[in-house]
Design goal:
alpha+beta; globular; D-Amino Acid Oxidase, Chain A, domain 2; seven-stranded mixed sheet
Length: 476
């Protein structure tokens, strides 16, 4: 994801990734939704800083990250397999032990800590099975989509085709778990995989003349999350913490951004032990918010497909209203104000319940109406259920005490002290009066505060956190 590149840039490894020769991914192309005709969306529509991402070859990408860790001073040991983790120490396959004040479990889907402690919870909403392999040759989409992932809905699920460097393609088929397991037992793994590709309309054509070079491999029941992601002596990150359906290729993104948060937790826990518990709770809350966002959007996208009718698709359609989807995920889908940014494009090509579409129109209109610029005489109040609270927020490489604004069905929003004061004092007062109260409390000139208060109020009103209750008429 483009947002992943921002983290890689922050830790100083992005130049090495850019120089590795990975294919640039400008977006995605899908045969999905109301019609089978392919359509595309592009990162540049919502991300100006990074209008593209990369189709990485994982062995090379992971090696780049490992080498960078070593360059930063990390002691790297090769060939030392970990077989168990217990109270701040790890047991190695050779019988040795390594002690640590904090263990970061990045063991992938082995999920050593979560499995050993019975923390892993499987997700009943995504009981799918994937079969994937790598092909030499074949064709990619036409430019400018030749670097895109191609996703094609089929009768029994969907296929992905990802172009990699050197003329290699990653290809996978996602189907219902019970159907896939039964067919694999009946046909065998490779014939089943070949049959899923042959049943597609476009993926099959793109792979004309291609040869399977590796695989196929089957993975089932892979969507899950750990009941606890952080403790006094451990933190889970990446697939060791959670994994969601691969519809949006979010595995690397969750791993990298989760590692960014996990590093902040470890730094905080080791340097300021009295903040350990609060920092761990903040890590878990922020990481789960990301996971939940992609999970609910995957549910929405599955529900929106109408290109084919089968048990697979009928079982994944949302028959109810927008109430089936958390409000935070819904608002992000409407506004596009999120890390991924492609929700609006995909939803516009899908078929969703009438109640959802009506709510979509209502929220879109409300956001448009709220996009007004307040003045000093505008009176504001907090929206229903919105509150300001002290909590741990992500600072410069660690968690630190700060302020957040949140409310029913909303993700928390970390804010500065000034914005927290604005929301705290927003009780049908004018913005001028609020500016004066903030200035008095901090013993500063009100004129220095007023401009920042107006700018912050504009954003909070647009996001529905503050409501306008009127405007004082200037006296004559």
């Amino acid at each position: 994801m483009p947002a992943t590149l921002a983290v890689l840039d922050d830790i100083g490894v992005l130049p090495e990734v850019e120089a590795a020769g990975f294919i640039r991914k400008w977006g995605a192309t899908m045969s999905w939704g109301r019609e089978a005709e392919p359509w595309s969306w592009y990162f540049k529509e919502t991300n100006r800083r990074f209008p593209h991402a990369y189709q990485v070859w994982r062995p090379r990408f992971d090696q780049i990250l490992l080498d960078h860790a070593a360059d930063c001073g990390c002691a790297v040991h090769f060939g030392e397999a970990v077989v168990s983790v217990d109270s701040g120490s790890v047991t190695l396959a050779g019988g040795g032990r390594a002690e640590a004040a904090m263990v970061v479990d990045a063991s992938g889907q082995r999920a050593l800590v979560a499995t050993a402690r019975g923390l892993r919870k499987w997700d009943s909403a995504f009981r799918n099975l994937a079969v994937y392999g790598y092909f030499d040759g074949g064709q990619h989409l036409d430019p400018p989509d030749d670097g895109n992932i191609f996703i094609e809905a089929t009768a029994h699920g969907w296929l992905w085709k990802i172009p990699l460097a050197g003329g290699v393609s990653s290809v996978g088929a996602v189907v219902d778990r019970n159907y896939g397991a039964g067919e694999i037992r009946r046909l065998g793994l490779e014939p089943f995989f070949s049959g899923q590709i042959a049943a597609s309309k476009r993926t099959h054509d793109l792979l004309g003349g291609a040869a399977l070079r590796q695989g196929p491999t089957a993975v089932r029941d892979w969507s899950y999350s750990a009941g606890s992601m952080a403790g006094d002596d451990f933190v889970l990150v990446g697939d060791a913490a959670c994994f969601i359906d691969p519809l949006f290729s979010t595995g690397v993104h969750l791993a990298v951004t989760g590692a960014h948060l996990a590093a902040a937790y470890v730094a905080t826990a080791l340097s300021t032990p009295h903040l350990r518990a609060a920092a761990g709770a903040a890590y878990e809350r922020l990481y789960r918010n990301q996971y939940a966002h992609f999970r609910e959007l995957a549910r929405l996208f599955y529900a929106s497909n109408r290109t084919t009718d089968s048990y697979f698709w009928e079982a994944r359609r949302i028959a109810g209203s927008v109430g089936d989807v958390p409000r935070a995920a819904f608002v992000r889908a409407v506004s596009g104000q999120n890390a991924a940014g492609y929700e609006r494009s995909v939803l516009s090509h899908g078929v969703l319940p009438g109640a959802f579409l009506r709510a979509l129109d209502t929220e879109t209109a409300a956001r448009r109406a709220r996009h007004m610029r307040p003045s000093a005489t505008t009176r504001v109040r907090r929206a229903f259920g919105v509150a300001v609270r002290r909590d741990m927020v992500l600072g410069d490489g660690r968690f630190e005490p700060g302020y957040v604004i949140d409310g029913p069905g909303r993700d928390e929003l970390p804010v500065s002290g000034l914005v927290a004061s604005l929301a705290h004092y927003a009780d049908s007062e004018t913005l001028r009066a609020i500016s004066e109260r903030i200035a008095s409390a901090n013993e500063v000139d009100p004129a220095r505060v007023a401009e920042s208060v107006l700018a912050a109020a504009h954003l909070l009103i647009a996001d529905g956190l503050l409501e306008v209750v009127g405007t004082d008429q200037p006296s004559i």
